[in-house]
Design goal:
globular; single chain; 274 residues; mainly alpha
Length: 274
């Protein structure tokens, strides 16, 4: 039995590791996957698992960008350390809107929006937005090419867009990337800033879920959670590298079409087969 549950955790970790960073909604995919792969655990554990598993994915960002985000690196000059601290200040400012609203409305969102209808609608809507915005910006590289050019005002406005990701199916990376592009950012800076915003947001969300769940885990629950996190971490390393390489020569329209097709399939499945 434990072997089967660990296999489920491995599969869920793979899904999380891929979808957390690509703008296709990790939460939406996890809600959909749960329709077919049910962990043999309490509802409370599963609710916590689907959030805390993201810690593994976040640690991949910490690993890959450790030097860039480390203001205390002895290899950096005094000016470079100041620039690193500036990145963190902009991350904190960008995190505030979603952190405050997420804390206030976490239970309401879980009770009312975590369902296939919400996921399908948001998948389709933001898929269309990706295509429309990319068509509008065709040939435009963006005026913000470095983090030095990203102002605190723009960082906060991108954070406002991140609030949209509280709705399942939106995609946290998708919302922040779309917002950043609309505000003049290059795709590369938009993606990196989205990664950096995820660090405090997901650490905070995971801490909140763990506190609500409590720390009275069974041995099997610990094994399932750790397995999912480790797999999500490993897969995330490859997913992040893939995305950063992909957007150097491509736009986000492919992800838009994927979202639309998946959203239509979700609606069709639940209407005719469930």
């Amino acid at each position: 039995m434990i072997f089967i549950e660990l296999l489920k955790a491995i599969f869920l970790g793979i899904v999380e590791g891929i979808t957390e960073w690509l703008p296709i909604s990790s939460t939406g995919h996890m809600i959909l996957v749960e329709e077919f792969i049910q962990l043999d655990a309490s509802a409370e554990f599963k609710e916590m698992f689907f959030v805390v598993i993201q810690l593994g994915a976040i640690l991949a960002v910490v690993l890959l960008f450790f030097h860039k985000l480390n203001p205390f690196s002895p290899k950096k000059t005094s000016n470079e350390k100041k620039e690193t601290m500036s990145i963190w200040y902009k991350v904190i400012i960008g995190v505030l809107p979603a952190a405050v609203l997420g804390f206030l409305f976490d239970d309401w969102l879980n009770d009312h929006l975590y369902n296939y209808i919400t996921v399908a609608i948001t998948l389709i809507i933001y898929g269309i937005l990706f295509i429309v915005i990319e068509n509008r910006n065709k040939g435009h590289k963006g005026t913000i090419q470095t983090f030095n050019e990203l102002t605190y005002k723009t960082a906060f406005l991108i954070g406002i867009f991140q609030v949209l990701a509280l709705i399942p199916g939106t995609s946290r990376s998708g919302a922040t990337i779309l917002g950043a592009i609309l505000l003049g950012s290059s795709r590369y800076i938009a993606a990196e800033y989205s990664f950096f915003l995820s660090i405090p947001i997901m650490f905070g969300a995971s801490a909140l879920k763990l506190i609500k769940f409590g720390f009275d885990f069974t041995g099997m629950e610990v094994a399932i959670l750790l397995t999912g996190m480790i797999v999500a971490f490993v897969v995330s390393v490859f997913a992040i590298k893939f995305l950063l390489g992909y957007i150097k020569n491509n736009d986000f329209k492919a992800f838009g079409w994927y979202r639309i097709i998946l959203g239509v399939l979700v609606i069709g499945y639940f209407l005719f087969f469930n």
